[in-house]
Amino acid sequence: MQKAIYNKNDLRVFVRDMISGKVKTLEFYLNFTLEASREVKKTSKYDSIREEMQEEIYHLDKQMANLKTMQEQMKKVLNTESQRVVLGSLVITNKARFYISVSLGEFFFEGDRFYAISAESPMAKKMMGMKAGDEFVLNKIHQKIEEVV
Question: How many CB atoms lie within 10 A of CB 117?
């Protein structure tokens, strides 16, 4: 099996663009919901609908704040090479590929599955400072680090 070579800068740009795309989508939904809430008639008959819309706007605002925080965190993710796992590392284990950056979860890049995880996640904390060849167990799952990019 041939080992895949990933360009970490391309990966970083891809994750940053994914977050920006989510922000744009959320802005659309937020604006749509705000506009719709203005259209609801101001009678007691529609109170429950207005309350539900306000609740939805609150949740969308919260999601937007989280995405904006992720955008700020991505600015701190370095693109330097390191032999050991640090913020910004791409860690390839015998089980998965982890990009230590922001808590974005699963995504596909160049046809392969990756997991963008925060440096504060239990998985990242377990791997921090490790190098290729090191092994660890988390949640009873044994993994071996094959490569740190």
Answer: 22
- pLDDT (tens digit, 9 = 90+) per residue, 23-60? 999 999 999 988 888 887 776 777 888 888 899 999 99
Q: What count of other Cβ atoms lies within 10 Å of the Cβ of residue 81? A: 10
**How far apart, in whole angstroms, are the C-alpha atoms of residue 14 and residue 91?**
16
SS3 letters for 70-109?
Answer: HHHHHHHCCCCCCCECCCCCEEEECCCEEEEECCCEEEEE
Q: Euclidean distance between the first and final Cα of the chain, in Å? A: 19
In the predicted model, what is the mean pLDDT of residues 143-147?
96
| Angstrom distance (rounded) from CA 52 to CA 55 | 5
In the chain, alpha helices (H):
8-39, 47-76, 122-127
Say if residues 88 and 79 touch (Cβ distance below 8 Å): yes
- Residue found by looking up tokens 């529609």 in the block: 46
